[in-house]
Amino acid sequence: MAVASKVKDLTGPGHTDRFGVGGTDLGVTAVAPDGRLVSVFGDTFERASVGGPGWRSPVVLFADPVTVAAGLEWVGSAGPGGYAQQVLGYRHGSTIGGRRVETVLPTDLMTVGDTMYLHVMVCQGIGDVHWTEVYRSADNGETWEPTGARWPGDALGGLFQMLTWERGSDGYVYAFSTGFQRDKGLILHRVPESRLTDPTAWEGWGYLDGAWAWGNPPTIALTGAYGELCLRRTGPRWLLTFFDAGNYRIDVLTLDSPTANLYEAPRETLVSGCSWDAEDHAAGRVAQPYGGYILPGSTPDDLHLVVSQWNTATNWPYRSMQFRARLVGAGAA
């Protein structure tokens, strides 16, 4: 088993205070067109806690890519004056389209040419998704605008909420998705890069009339109860990490392609959930973990992840951390 060990805390006191970031989570990351790393975080507060002043989501921090190996070092944030601003234009608790919106949470981002794309869930609360949509940035993640691409929260039985995507070498973007309730399996879609923001261009991977094929209604490709997802290409292989809520852990699958049989793909546990008195971050035992986003520059031999942790009883720790692992199965070959 490829056990991950902690590299460092990425957010919280002593790490992100200067950006007005005390408590935050998530931290999905991509390389901007200018070469910086762009990390997008979810519900963020000025104090090292959940709640209090400065609630915003999402926020963006920038990092130097050469610091991945030793632990991300932040070099700035989106927003004037060094304060990490909320990068999307809405107010928490406002009514949009007749629906109350408490927060907007990032699920994944990607760079295509000179443009970055961010997929988000518009939520009334945790697990209650009104709709999902895609934003774009033409200035390396500093500012974001809506693309008009939007899907209702109940699309495909609620399986098109939490999403991860990655570019293939064939002109398509491949995307796995699940619900935000941590009680659903995974489905797969693809869309031409040139039509990424056209919902009608997305097609499912489904089993029909005895065969799997594109264009069929999407079939659950892996049963289970999943949360945050991250799909990335590393050389000829694809890595899919996910929070396996059903088994209380963060796993990784090594795939030859996104359409590989997920039940047969090599699977390794990176982080195991545990009780608070049994934590050992050096051995990959983390209380109340989630996330598990692959950092750019990772390889199967040196895989770096952003892992979140939230003590829901005390509201601290509420932070993102960096872990690293070496895959020991097919991914390391």
From TrEMBL:
It holds the Pfam family DUF4185. Residues 12-324 form the DUF4185 domain. It comes from the Bacteria. This is DUF4185 domain-containing protein.
